[in-house]
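Please check the following for our workbook:

***
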Amino acid sequence: MSCPSPTSPPTPSLPPQHPGPRPWLFALQGWRRRVLFVSLYEAIAIAFSSWGLAQMSGDGLAHAGVMGLAASAIAIVWNLVFNALFERWEARQTVRGRGFARRAAHAIGFEGGLLLYFVPLFAWWFDVSLWQSLVMDLGLLVFFLIYTFVFNWCFDRVFGLPGSAA
């Protein structure tokens, strides 16, 4: 057995890998993960947001459902953009995994971006003031902050963490 000489460069030590909890089904990565994530998330979101908008606006479910679909289309594009940017940022972080603070930051950032789109859109579609539209959107926001947090946690438990957080 030979010892390294004092002039040889030190061998870099890598931090221990933290794979996170094992997925309940199978690990899913890359574009397949994003497509499945967005599809499941939005299908559930359309149902709840259409019903919620109908209740808050006093309009029928059909009228609110059109806005639910439009909001979903906007949210899908925003979801793809936001998650790509978030995962790029996340991959550069020294702390791995997705704890409460990171999940909360993800949910708040995502929903805050949607707020900028939806307030003027809801005001126009439902023919209400910007204030009324903001109140409607805040009602949905409270629901979606909780829903986003819970959905992300469940999705990660079922399909494992993305490579950026593992």
